[in-house]
């Protein structure tokens, strides 16, 4: 990083005044802040020291994220940039919807078999009234 351009650290400047002399000095302190780029510098493990459970879970999650980026995002980066990947994702959702509709159709066939069941009682309608019309028209 160039000096002053590191986005992973925050530079704090404090103004300190000496009690007896009254002189002023500035103290700069750098503090690590959350950033995507911290992904590339994981916490180091001291020799013979094991990481706690939270750090291990964080490293496992980071590994999964890195794997997804490498396997799915990077190879299709141009498609995401041009917007074609989003269209393909919508197509995939349509296929899932069609699968759900096929399942519904199979359930309808099961409902029709109920007519042969002796305990089947269809919904009663009043004689002389036309069937209710669809309200979505």
UniProtKB/TrEMBL annotation:
Residues 126-137 have a biased composition (Basic and acidic residues). GO terms for biological process: nucleosome assembly. Transmembrane segments: none annotated. Residues 86-118 have a biased composition (Acidic residues). InterPro entries: NAP-like_sf, NAP_family. Residues 84-137 are annotated as: Disordered. GO terms for cellular component: nucleus. It comes from the Eukaryota. Belongs to the nucleosome assembly protein (NAP) family. This is Uncharacterized protein.
């Amino acid at each position: 990083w160039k000096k002053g351009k590191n986005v992973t650290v925050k530079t704090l400047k404090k103004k300190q005044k000496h009690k007896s002399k009254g002189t002023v000095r500035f103290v700069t302190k750098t503090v690590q802040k959350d950033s995507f780029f911290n992904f590339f510098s994981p916490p180091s493990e001291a020799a013979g020291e094991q990481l706690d459970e939270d750090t291990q879970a964080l490293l496992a999650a980071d590994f999964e994220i890195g794997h997804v980026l490498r396997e799915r995002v990077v190879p299709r980066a141009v498609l995401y940039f041009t917007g074609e990947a989003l269209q393909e994702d919508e197509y995939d959702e349509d296929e899932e919807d069609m699968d759900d509709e096929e399942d519904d159709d199979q359930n309808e066939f099961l409902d029709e078999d109920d007519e042969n069941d002796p305990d089947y009682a269809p919904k009663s309608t009043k004689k002389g009234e036309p069937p209710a019309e669809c309200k979505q028209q």
